[in-house]
Amino acid sequence: MKIIDKVKSIKEQELTATENLEQKYNIIEEKNDEINAFVELDLERAQKVAKEIDDKIKSGEKTGKLAGLVIGIKCNINVEDFIVSAASPTLKEYQGSYNATVINKIIEEDGVIVGLTNMDEFAAGSSTETSMYGPTNNPNALGHIPGGSSGGSAAAIAADMCDIALGSDTGGSIRNPASHCGVMGFKPTYGMVSRQGLLDLAMSLDQIGPFANDTTGIGLMLDVITGYDPYDTTTLNKETTPFIDDTTNTTLENTSVGIVKEFMDVTDSKINDVINKSVDKMSDLGAEIKELSFGDVDLGLPTYYLINYVEFFSATRKYDGRKYGERIEEVCGPEVARRIQIGSYISQKEFSGKYYNKALQARSLIRKDFNNVLNDVDILAGPTVPKLPHKIGEKIDTMDMYAYDVLTVLANITGIPASSMKAGLVNDIPVGLQLQAKPEEDHKILSTMSAIENN
After folding, report:
1. Which residues span the domain enclosing 227?
2. Catalytic annotation on 74?
3. Which CATH number does the domain housing residue 275 bear?
4. Burial 8-17 (b: 16+ CB within 10 A, else e)
């Protein structure tokens, strides 16, 4: 059943919100010990919300877009009275004292928040192995990482523990786990969704977005969380048409799709074989396929990480052990410590020109060149992640971990929208098709996903 059909059935009380919550919670109880997708749950609170929704429906009151849907939230997004730890011992006792803007919007639209999902510590990782709660298992490739940093949210959707989940994406942290877990993940245009209440990793790159198993789940949640927020000055003040309208598309006629040679060159050949089949399908649906070139692909990772290090170092100065939490340097894991140390070093006056300012120059160059590539087409299609997920606990070096992000960081550097959806399997492990478009052309991506899904 598609998510939009489930909402309809709840509104018509063929399925009550309480029954939907019960079904999802039973799955969580059955699977979460093995998967470790959820790190905190509040059934009592969720039951109360579900009952209120059912009562509203019975009394003929209007209910919201998410009426009775069970929602999981990445544990770096503030939800009042939950432990918002970002999976770090630094904040292991930090109780959210307010709701992030996206959370208030979900509550207003009658979503049922069941709990918080696992992640890499402070979103610094691509595997969800750096969490203080332990690693998350990949439900569709058991024993392998689910990707990161929003691995818990992707795994929760893959295991059918909730209807929709929220994650955050700084360099691929929604799309990477969506690819590995075989679900849909969507990173909106930078500024399309408020970041107020998100514990930032790198403020000029972070964006909140949804996971779901079908485009109607993505569309519904985008309709709820997008929009201007006076509490986040980076949000765009623009009206957009409903995203749910994009989910009934069946054709790619009059759509041009670009395939970037360099993206395929850095990707495992077996993954490319699967991606090429998706491209053939897009062609069959009427898309015009164009081969393109982007010479700056090697600039992406160093530019991204230099900006990330500096902004993360700045963001973590508030975790000094005085106001709340522990002093971050005393309790954090090695990857967070590495980013703080490098960020501290290159933030120093004598080095900022050499590293950070050069990274900002490279960012401008990448943005200009990438926009030139996008000018030729409506959509860029290609692999989301260039390699298959490693096994949980397998030792891989830092640069190999960073290499997972080589195809996803460009969308964050340039601020454009991007998504991942399942393209197929390699060795029984899901691989994702990444779609990217010009800034504020999020609708084109969802419409393209919908055409592929509906055929």
Report:
1. 1-455
2. yes
3. 3.90.1300.10
4. eebbeeebbb
